Amino acid sequence: ARVGARPLPARATLDLSQGSLLVTGGFGGLGPKIARWLADQGARRIVLAGRRGAPQGDATFDAALAPLRARGVELVFERVDVADLTAMAQLFERQAAAGRPVRGVVHAAASIRFQSLDTLTPADLADALRAKVQGAWVLHELLRDGLFVLFSSATALFGAKGLAAYASANAFLGALAQHRAALGLPATCVDWGAWDEIRLLGGAPQGDMARIGQRTMVDADAFGALAALVQAGVPAAMLADIDWPTACAAYQVQGRRPFLAAMEGGTPAATAAAPAEAAGIAAPADLRAELQPLDP
């Protein structure tokens, strides 16, 4: 796989005026932001979906969506588990019956829980993987054309203390995007770094991010670059503003890592075009020693 640092692509605009556009994880903080981006790309009907349903009496959520309604965008709220194939198939059927079949999806559902690897149980792992992994596969089964965007995280490439399950789930999204590309199906998976609307590691302060080489991108630039990747047909990439000398030093305390070795000398505000399988990083010797005696 090719790995390298590139400047952020120029902003682009898509034509998403047909049908319904689905946002999973739509009732979280990112939901209204993604909806706004979709509307800016021409979407006229946006379905926000989430397992807990739309927040009631949330002034911030309502205010974020009010400008879209003022622009004539139809907003539909669906309480549904994206990992439930039957329920999601019924959601797709409802949109088709309304005359606006689903023509695209942004999969932003996630479950973030900090937990050390030695306390991670199979049940914990299954819970962490459900929304991202099983949910993404359900969407893969249901949508074979149109917009197919997977929101991943740079943890899939860098790793993150206490987020092994979350990083694994994100790595799967990149692999799924590559799989769809191999089948001739549309897919764009973005391993997001830090930007104004999303913080790597579940909301870490900007000062903490700077210490590991992550600088926040302006949200308009991030969304504009996303549209450019979709337009160019790039199946998987990391979008991040990285201080590479700082990041390489922070993440290679225990030894050199092939991914970072390939990125040293990268430019600021770079897109690292890296398929999920490019993140195969050798474990430090002490960790290998701990893992070798364990049962598979």
What does it look like?
This protein is α/β, with parallel strands linked by helices. The protein contains twelve helices and eleven strands. Strands 1-11-9-7-6-5-2-3-4 form a nine-stranded mixed sheet, sandwiched between helices. Strands 8-10 form a two-stranded antiparallel sheet.
In short:
It contains 12 helices and 11 strands. The protein is α/β, with parallel strands linked by helices and 296 residues long. A 9-stranded mixed beta sheet has the order 1-11-9-7-6-5-2-3-4, sandwiched between helices. It has a two-stranded antiparallel ribbon with strand order 8-10.
Which structural class matches the secondary elements? alpha/beta
Characterize the largest beta sheet: strand count, sense, and whether it forms a barrel. 9 strands, mixed
Q: Compute the separation of the termini in Å.
A: 27 Å
Could you say which overall geometry the principal axes of the C-alpha atoms support? Answer: globular
Strand order of the largest sheet: 1-11-9-7-6-5-2-3-4
Report Rg.
Answer: 19 Å
Number of helices: 12
Number of strands: 11
Secondary-structure map with pairings?
Layout: E1 5-7, E2 20-24, H1 31-40, E3 45-50, H2 59-70, E4 74-79, H3 85-97, E5 102-107, H4 122-142, E6 147-153, H5 155-158, H6 164-182, E7 188-192, H7 200-203, H8 206-211, E8 214-215, H9 219-232, E9 236-239, E10 241-242, H10 244-251, H11 258-263, E11 270-272, H12 285-291
Parallel strand pairs: 2-3, 2-5, 3-4, 5-6, 6-7, 7-9
Antiparallel strand pairs: 1-11, 8-10, 9-11
